[in-house]
Inverse folding.
């Protein structure tokens, strides 16, 4: 991820040992590891939200194109497919909204600490 070789990592640990001392170095490593976990979790959440948003946008574009081409002359099978796409679009939008609310709740809880 960061392209750090073993020698560079060893050098950073030695410098950390000299600067922080043997008592505080493990605590500092745990803190940095915690930050990395939080950053990874946040980036995964953002990536998931972006993917869902893109899928939702594609579904909405497809629905708009279908509506513009004239839904009145569609067969019942196509109409059922379009109705299913609308339901999926609405469920994705609800899921995105709920994830956003959970994410803001998590961030506000961390700010309180």
């Amino acid at each position: 991820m960061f392209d750090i070789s073993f020698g560079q990592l060893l050098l950073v640990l030695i410098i950390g040992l000299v600067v922080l001392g043997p008592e505080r170095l493990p605590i500092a490593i745990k803190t940095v590891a915690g930050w990395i976990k939080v950053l990874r979790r946040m980036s995964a959440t953002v990536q998931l939200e972006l993917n869902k948003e893109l899928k939702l946008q594609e579904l909405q574009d497809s629905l708009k194109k279908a509506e513009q081409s004239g839904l009145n002359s569609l067969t019942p099978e196509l109409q059922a497919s379009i109705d299913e796409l609308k339901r999926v679009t609405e469920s994705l939008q609800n899921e995105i909204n709920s994830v956003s609310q959970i994410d803001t709740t998590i961030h506000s809880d961390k700010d309180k600490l």
About this structure: The chain has a mean pLDDT of 82. The two ends are 29 Å apart (CA to CA). The CA atoms of residues 65 and 71 lie 10 Å apart. The helical segments are 6-70, 76-112.
